[in-house]
Design a protein that fits this description.
The protein is an alpha/beta fold. Helices cover about 40% and strands about 15% of the residues. The chain contains 10 helices and 8 strands. Strands 1-2-3-4-5-6-7-8 form an 8-stranded parallel β-sheet. Helix 4 packs parallel to helix 6 and helix 9 crosses helix 10. It is globular and about 45 Å long.
């Protein structure tokens, strides 16, 4: 059995059929990411988790919505994460990729506030990190010379690592060094469909050597469909395609990779076992 460690199920109008296809593809459990369209709807993933036993949920305020991390929104998050079906806070982090995202100070304040909520609830976090390195000129002008990865790792070292809690680097897309620093900070590396893209050679290198007890697979559905479905709507069923690609990179069977990543997810989230 495979587990999709990151998908946005509240984006589907045909969710029952999507879940059926996931089950048929061997994807038996799913972590639905509870960011909604912003804090006003971040409870939707948790509602789905209560409706579907194979679905678990997170809740959080995405960095693109960091300006909405008001005291009221953070109080709502504190309530959501106390629900047993809510197993993580996220996706949270930093995004210096889009020029219309909130400024750095606003993003960092929202990130720190949510880490503190997760520490208080003793629940892992799932991280979103995008740099301005490949962004539009407008984003470069707004965010550089700051580096989202450097800022993220510094904030984690100050506010998260001392807690001893683990987390997930969602859709990991960093370098070998960033992978090592993430692992040292107690994070699992989750590989999405972009690992299958021909130009993702650095990411593929990380997927080859990453420790077998610290890797996960995800879809980020409905985004980032893997090859050969790139450009189409993604679905949790396609976690099987990404898992097969990663297994081939590592020179192991899909069955072994499924066993390893499922065990990793259950270690990270014992309630789901």
């Amino acid at each position: 059995m495979l587990i999709d460690s990151h998908c946005h199920l509240d984006d589907y109008e045909d969710l029952p059929a999507v879940l059926d296809r996931a089950r048929a593809a061997g994807v038996g459990r799913l972590l639905a990411i509870g960011i909604g369209d912003g804090p006003a709807t971040m409870q939707r993933a948790l509602e789905l988790a209560h409706e579907h036993p194979q679905v678990w949920a997170s809740a959080g305020i995405h960095p693109q919505e960091a300006h909405q991390a008001t005291p009221g929104a953070l109080a709502k998050l504190e309530v959501l994460v106390r629900d047993p079906r809510c197993i993580a806070v996220g996706e949270i982090g930093l995004d210096y990729y889009h020029a219309d995202n909130p400024d750095i100070a606003t993003q960092q304040a929202a990130f720190v506030a949510q880490m503190l909520i997760a520490v208080a609830a003793q629940k892992p976090i799932t991280i979103h990190c995008r740099t301005s390195e490949l962004a539009t000129p407008g984003a470069k002008a707004k965010y550089e010379p700051a580096d989202a990865w450097q800022d993220l790792l510094a904030l984690l070292a100050e506010h998260w690592t001392p807690s001893g809690l683990p987390g997930i680097m969602h859709c990991f897309s960093g370098s070998d060094e960033q992978a090592l620093r993430s692992l040292d900070a107690g994070f699992y590396l989750s590989f999405a469909g972009n690992v299958t893209y021909p130009k993702s050679t650095v990411l593929q290198q990380v997927a080859r050597w990453a420790p077998s007890d610290r890797i996960l697979v995800e879809t980020d559905a409905p985004f980032l469909a893997p090859v050969p479905l790139r450009g189409q709507r993604n679905e949790p069923a396609n976690a099987a395609l990404t898992a097969k690609f990663v297994a081939d990179l590592r020179g192991v069977s899909l069955e072994l990779l499924a066993e390893q990543t499922t065990a990793n997810f259950e270690r990270l989230f014992p309630a789901t076992a």
